[in-house]
Design goal:
seven-stranded antiparallel beta sheet; Aminoglycoside 3'-phosphotransferase, Chain: A, domain 2; 12 helices
Length: about 475
Amino acid sequence: MPKTASLQPSSTGGFLHLDSLAGLLREWLPRQRWFAGKDRPVTDLRLLSVTELFPGCLHVLIHAAHAGSPGPHAGVPAPGGTAAPASPTPAGGDCYQLLLGFQEHLSPRLGKALIGRAESGPMAGLTVYDALLDPRSAHLLLERMRHTGTLGPLLFDSDPAVPIPSGLAPRLLDAEQSNTSLVYGDAFILKLFRRIQPGVNPDLEVPLALAREGCARVPAPVAWMRTSRPQEATLGVLQPFLPDAADGWTLALQALSHGEDFTAEASALGAATAEVHLALAAAFPAASHAENARLAAAMTERLDAAAHQVKALRPHVPGLRAAFGALVACDPGPPAQRIHGDLHLGQVLRAGREWFVIDFEGEPSRPLAERRSEHSPVRDIAGMLRSFDYAARQRRPWRPEWARRCREAYCAGYAARAGWDPRKKHALLRAYETDRAVYEVLYEAKHRPAWLPVPMAAIERLAVRGD
């Protein structure tokens, strides 16, 4: 068994000198799929917080700036810690949560976790690795979360009504993109947020509130981890794991590959979405409607910015502008409320005959205040409708009729439970779906050019026919 390093506080009162690791982290961070600045070199690293979780493992919050880092609107947090510097937190870049392990010699089975070997400072001669990939560290992390309390700036809390057994075997989930998730004994799943922003993360706030409303469509948090200084921030959430569940995207593709109908599932999913929306409206009371003129202006601004970057979008701008312009005089629809914010087939799970909604974090690149703001529930509906279209276009020949039937069934299921029909809010639904498709065009053009025809087909439909 590899020998665990004994970490001793340095002469400055901390466990870590960043100078000894800066070079390693500058190379390692951009290679991580959850790192936001992959296409920009890291220009500066600053230590925000260091806490020894257990021997051989440090909890670290680090600020990373990169060429072209955005300003304060990016939502960079300023959480403090055991060894936080006295200087203020930088305004640009992002804050990341790391669990750093230190050993004299790293086991070959942890090869993927390797960050490098420290050459100077208190860690000189020790191998540095991502401790979240180490089963021993993952086990000790859960043991720490089983008990409420504090450790330096770290706070651990839990639902006393749900006991967490000890000794659950951990395994890393490979599907996560912007965070890191660990499954424990097929009983619980722990999501560790990598990019940290100040405030309560919606992935903790919303499921807790829905649990109080008795909404069973969202797994309730069992335990959670936060930091307290100088601003509160959510670091991780432990929830029940549904071992026999499959996500909606996988189920939709399976149905398509077998030539099977998916309308029953889509209808049930629509009803489940409506249940979640009703519970959200009760948990976060709001009585205002979105201002359609302001909404149309914001959507038009995003369209113009996207057309400036994606040439294929430009011929369709007049028709798309008309979709947004129709908002001004249309029925404002249901009141604005808290919503999911990034709803699609990959954010829902089906276990047995029931649908569950997960991942209320929203888009991590967006400021936390924006992700917690109120929007029309039609925005979530439009996101799911676009997801059916994406699924239908994963196989050739394309199956637009499959997507159309699913879209109709989903809206019908939603209407039966919500008491209002999204299809009767035509101008509003068209505008939100258009706004989503414009976002998809920009994303695919930047990251997956081969997928660009998928949202462009929707752009052509929405701009020319106004469907």
